[in-house]
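2024-03-11 09:14:02 DEBUG pipeline.ingest accepted 1 chain
2024-03-11 09:14:02 DEBUG pipeline.ingest length=289
2024-03-11 09:14:03 DEBUG pipeline.predict start
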Amino acid sequence: MRGAKEKILHEIDSSSTEISFPLFNGVVQQVRNAAMQDFDAKKMGDNDASKGQRERLESDLNVLNGALSGIVDSYSRAVQSYTDSMQKSINDNEYFSQTDFMKIHQATKTETMHQFQTQPGDNEFKWAIQRKIEASIEQKFHTFEPTNAAKRQDFIQRANAHSEAVVGELKASFENKVRSGIGKSYLSDDDFFGLFSNSKQSTLQEFAARKMGNDELANQAYQSFREKLERDIDSLQITLKQVNEANKPPPKEHKKSGWVKFRDGVISAVTRVGVSYSSGGLDVNVNNG
């Protein structure tokens, strides 16, 4: 019996495929046949003692087969439990960072192994099958990685498209807000830059409030497009300053005093009428031009 069990354990260790009932049914059948042939070759006649020993050997082999079948069943349920749990985690989340994905994998694997270890069964078979479960779980984990990577890429595209649309909307909103603040009045430099700065800060705060989330990729998209929004806002400063300058009133004309008016009148008259002195007296020339 010990030899039969060791043969089965060796087959488990050397198997490069997943454990399955068809695989080990064949192994068990080979071990059974070999054990019975070995017994028949060594038995001492066909007496009742030999028949009893043969029946006990068959019974022991059946018990061994049952123990192995139970362990293989536990293996299948353990691998399926890990697969179902990981699939649910992926379905229930937008995506995982590489660090979080590994944590989910390790936590699910630990829980799966704990469930398997608490199952009844032959300890030697359990130890051999446990190593196979761990190897199968690692293989399953690698099949989930492309799915998570695809979900990450999809989220990046959606986060970028969302952020780009919000940037365009808020840039236009900012410009309208400043133009409305200026209106038809003229703002001093201090008032203009105060309006510009306050409007910029409120726009950036609104952009922060509308980002897609507070996770790794959402924050990356937010930071990248926040910088773009800030550049776009700053690029409007010259245009909006010109809008304000267009409202600047012309300089006021000073009112002339009575004396200045009299002086300007005399100067104007002298300019129109030429006056000169000569030895013969005062010459007056009228300029008709």
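2024-03-11 09:14:41 DEBUG pipeline.report The mean pLDDT is 81.
2024-03-11 09:14:41 DEBUG pipeline.predict end
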